[in-house]
TrEMBL record:
Pathway: Cell wall biogenesis; peptidoglycan biosynthesis
Statement: the UniProt record of this protein carries the keyword GTP-binding: no
Full protein name: Probable lipid II flippase MurJ
Claim: Transferase is one of the keywords in the record: no
Pfam families, A to Z: MurJ (PF03023)
Subcellular location: Cell inner membrane; Cell membrane
Keywords for the protein's UniProt record, in alphabetical order: Cell inner membrane, Cell membrane, Cell shape, Cell wall biogenesis/degradation, Membrane, Peptidoglycan synthesis, Transmembrane, Transmembrane helix, Transport
Topological type in the membrane: Multi-pass membrane protein
């Protein structure tokens, strides 16, 4: 079940990330790393920060276990509960959006303080953020509906909705440019995308028989319990996003750094989303069910199996992104207003970000342990520790290393966050990373090292082909290197019998 659900989510997540990459390609070619590009990227990241932390993060983490529990008792009870949460959520989101719109100049000062040094850049960022902020309403409602569908093991719909957003941004911006400038067009396109996403999710919800009544009952026990747990979960579920938020705020003091880090972030988000978000999505409903039955043996087995699969995918991805960062950035982004010097700077950031990829993935897998047990306070404390460490490292490393120091700081903080999550997870069913999983990790690292040696040799002897004037030659060189690198890793993995470990069935004495 885990593998089948994972394949469904991974397929649509991968598809959505490719469309997201196409969106970033469109933005990079249109704006490069200019001041306008920085403003556009901040305007995009602001509502999406709320989406990842509040909507897909805290709301899903708290709502799904409660909704799943009610589904076991009665579908009617579950529908009434979702109606109460939807009504309260709509009122909260509309109120929050109005407040944010009024306070936007102060918020931009908080999220991009470096912009304040340039008056025109600051004012443009305020205007664009005001245009994109209502997207918060649509994307949070989409997350609520996605949580309901995920609870009944219908994962495809919610995994598909980012594709709607990415396609809408490109298409709507392209047509709106006839009447508006490109940066205003792309901001308005996000609102159009939000409307389409909600419409699609409403259709899927009613098709699945999960339609609900509108009920206003803010004082009922179940509603207040959810609201009470939402506070800590809002911070704890977004460790990575809050770290990136802080990194972006610090980067705003460096010209072009916001855009550079954003373009690099999009590329390493591809394997992160495919692995981490996939498992984070399917683990929470499943773990909620298992912990409800107090079947700790099965929960530990499921978590270790997820860690093994995640390590098998994330460690070689880290090596690949680190070693091939420059040719990847060159091939994807270098055209239009995105110049060769932008390629070098963005590749440096991508290489630094990639070092934290396995840690980000591990955190996505370990965090559901806490939420499945309705514990939002422990991850909150861990998040606060990592945020403080991330901020200190960002500032300290930015001084000697510039934007690269910010990316390195974020990666170090990610590893500390993952270590703390693992350390305190043992309080739930005595969770532990088994010896088998640790040995599996060492074998994956060895295979990845062999892959690194191969890639480095190709870069040394055939480096010029990666930057050929002919697109066909450089794309074939990069694709061929990646393909043969993966083949070497898989061959070594097969020789080390990693497939036998993955296919090993659950031992009740585990």
């Amino acid at each position: 079940m885990l593998l089948r659900s994972g394949i469904i989510v991974a397929f649509f997540t991968l598809l959505s990330r490719f469309f997201g990459l196409a969106r970033e390609f469109f933005i990079a070619a249109t704006f490069g790393t200019s001041a306008i590009a920085d403003c556009v990227n901040v305007a995009f990241k602001f509502p999406n920060l709320f989406r990842r932390i509040f909507g897909e993060g805290a709301l899903s983490a708290v709502f799904i276990p409660m909704f799943s529990e009610k589904l076991v008792n009665s579908q009617g009870e579950a529908k009434n509960f979702s109606g109460k949460i939807f009504t309260l959520l709509m009122i909260t989101l509309i109120t929050l959006t109005i407040i944010v719109e009024i306070l936007m100049p102060y918020i931009v000062l908080l999220i991009a303080p470096g912009f304040y040094l340039e008056n025109e850049k600051f004012e443009l960022a305020v205007i664009l953020c005001r245009i994109t902020t209502p997207y918060l309403i649509f994307v949070s409602i989409t997350a609520l509906f996605g949580g309901m569908l995920n609870s009944v093991k219908k994962f495809a719909a919610f995994a598909f909705v980012p594709i709607i957003m990415n396609v809408s941004v490109i298409v709507v911006t392209y047509y709106l440019q006839e009447n508006y400038t490109a940066h205003y067009s792309i901001a308005y396109s996000l609102i159009v995308a939000g409307v389409l996403q909600v419409a699609f999710m409403v259709f899927c919800l009613y098709k699945s028989g999960l339609g609900f009544p509108i009920i206003f009952a803010p004082n009922e026990k179940e509603v207040t319990q959810l609201v009470k747990n939402m506070g800590p979960a809002t911070l704890s579920s977004g460790a990575q996003q809050l770290n990136l938020f802080i990194s972006g705020a610090i980067a705003s003091f460096l010209p072009g750094a916001v855009s550079i880090l954003s373009y690099a972030d999009r590329l390493y988000q591809l394997p992160l989303a495919l692995i981490g978000i996939t498992f984070g999505t399917i683990l929470l409903p499943e773990l909620s069910r298992i912990y409800k039955k107090r079947n700790y043996n099965e929960a530990n087995y499921l978590q270790n199996k997820a860690l093994q699969i995640a390590l098998l995918l994330s460690v070689p991805s880290m090596v690949g992104l680190f070693a091939l960062s420059k040719p990847i950035i060159h091939l994807i982004y270098e055209r239009g207003k995105f110049l060769p010097e932008d390629t070098i700077l963005t590749a440096e950031a991508l290489a630094a970000f990639s070092l934290g990829l396995p840690a980000f993935v591990i955190a996505k897998i370990l965090t559901p342990i806490y939420y499945a047990n309705l514990d939002t306070k422990t991850p909150l404390r861990i998040t606060l520790y990592s945020l403080v460490i991330n901020t200190i490292l960002n500032i300290a490393l930015m001084i000697p290393f510039g934007h690269v120091g910010i990316a390195i700081g974020a990666s170090i903080a990610a590893w500390i966050n993952a270590w703390l999550l693992n350390k305190y997870a043992k309080q739930y069913g005595d969770f532990k990373v088994t010896y088998e999983t640790k040995l599996f990790a060492f074998k994956v690292i060895f295979g990845s090292f062999c892959m690194l040696v191969f890639i480095s040799s190709i870069m040394y002897y055939f480096g010029d082909l990666f930057y050929s004037n002919k697109f066909s030659i450089k794309s074939a060189t990069l694709l061929g290197t990646i393909t043969f690198g993966i083949a070497i890793f898989l061959a070594i993995s097969y020789h080390l019998k990693l497939h036998i470990v993955l296919l090993k069935k659950h031992d009740p004495s585990f």
